[in-house]
Design a protein that fits this description.
Length: about 140
Amino acid sequence: MERKIILASHGRFASGILDSLEIIFGNKHPITALDCYLSESFDLTESVKRLLDENQGKEIIVITDLFGGSVNNEFLQYIDQAKLYLIAGLNLPLLIELTAQIEQAESIPQLIADTLRSSKETIQFCNDSINKEIEEEEF
């Protein structure tokens, strides 16, 4: 079954992080960015419906910027749709890992669980991390 990742955000965050990803992977990947609210005429409901209709029959991972935000809430309405997986908290380490493994993953839910676990480890308070390393080296 064909797989697709949809990035959706307030403003240009989705296309911006996709640009960053393309520095690493090039532009041969199954990813689409949906930048929301860039104009007064933007219709979130219609945009989401159209995007999901265009990708019907695929396994879809949707990653939004903010849990509980309007973009995430719009996709939540489709959460019961078969083969649609919704993640909130878009970040580059998460996206890199999903992109690297999406084609060979046997199970999308397991891929998501593993990726969430490992990408959380990339969020660091560098001052503490560096100070701990220095303290450990001193002994």
